[in-house]
Amino acid sequence: MFIGEEANKQLLVEKLIQKFIRENIARNIDVHLEVYWSSSEPTATNDSNQGSYIRSYPLYIDCLELYNQGFQKDGIYTISLETGPRLVRCDQNNGGWTVIQRREYGEESFYRSGQLYVDGFGEVYGDYWIGLENIRYLTETSSSLVIEMETFGDTSPNEAFARYSNFQLDSGSNQYRLAVSGFEGDCDDGLEYHNGAKFSTYDFDNDIASDRDCADEGQGGWWYVMCYDSNLNGPYSHSSYVNVVNDAGITWASCWGYGYSLKRVEMKVKRN
Ligand SMILES: [Ca+2]
Q1: pTM here?
Q2: Which fold has domain 63-271?
Q3: Is the peptide bond before 235 cis (omega within 30 degrees of 0)?
């Protein structure tokens, strides 16, 4: 990097780096700078004015921190979770929301084991579940949850959102018990019924229906009770009709009934 003799060289360098990072994907990046404090290109024999230093740009803890640091475009970013750096989708248009679940393409199976629900699965450029442990970590401090839902356009309302001013998960030893409250939205609530429930998968039946296996009925992983009002990790149906297996689909019953499977869902969290 060649910098002229003008004043504020350091500031100029910083601005160039910030611009570089903004124009690229944010990532943990060590920028090794070689700064030439002269107006001419240095030569091997004339480097007396050359300085260098390494400036480390840290990972951000979530999309809100990225937003506050000036990364305000929607996109894929790297954040630092307890388990290490991870790519996530950030909804920056709405002020720094970290996407924890996304259903849109229908190519990723959500009928997954408990371990995969803990660790996360899927593809950040497609559909994914960020993992219960990561959700717990992201919402350790008071956080909100927003769920955006979209239909196939053949019913009303075509879209709806649900927002909860409190959303937190208990530890893994307590099966990631759900704490959710403070609903507002433009259709009815479908999650507070699940408040206090433990997370269930086909191999970990933590629902309260002793004679039923709600994860099998819902064909997904969720905070099943007896069994569900919402089933946003249910099987993707490429039409509005629910999947043929156990009549399960991506459902939000309070708004569209148990028979309607959604086209697109996004769940995202933000620290309050
Ligand atoms: Ca059961």
Answers
A1: 0.80
A2: Gamma Fibrinogen; Chain A, domain 1 (3.90.215)
A3: no
Integer Cα distance of 22 and 75 in angstroms: 11
Instruction: Report how far ligand 1's centroid is from the alpha carbon of 227 (Å).
Output: 9
Residue spans of the chain under pLDDT 50: 1-7, 25-28, 35-48
Ligand 1 centroid from CA 213, angstroms: 4
- In SS3 terms, the chain reads as CCCCCCCCHHHHHHHHHHHHHHHCCCCCEEEEEEEECCCCCCECCECCCEEEEEEEECCECCHHHHHHCCCCCCEEEEEEECCEEEEEEEECCCCCEEEEEEECCCCCCCCCCHHHHHHCEECCCCCEECCHHHHHHHCCCCEEEEEEEECCCCCCCCEEEEEEEEEEECCHHHCCCEEEEEEEECCCCCCHHHCCCCCEECCECCCCCCCCCHHHHHCCCECCCCCCCEECCCCCCCCCECCCHHHCCCEEHHHHCCCECCCEEEEEEEEC
206 C-alpha to center of ligand 1: Å? Answer: 6
As beta bridge partners, residue 154 has: none
Strand 97-103 and strand 264-271: pairing? antiparallel
Q: Which residues are found with C-beta within 5 Å of the ion, ligand 1?
A: 205, 207, 209
Q: Distance from the CA of 33 to the center of ligand 1, in angstroms?
A: 59
Residue type, 235: P
Q: How far is the CA of 202 from the centre of ligand 1 (A)?
A: 10
Question: What is the CB neighbour count within 10 angstroms for residue 173?
Answer: 6
> 218 C-alpha vs ligand 1 centroid, how far in Å?
12
User: What is the domain partition of the chain in residue ranges?
Assistant: 9-57, 63-271
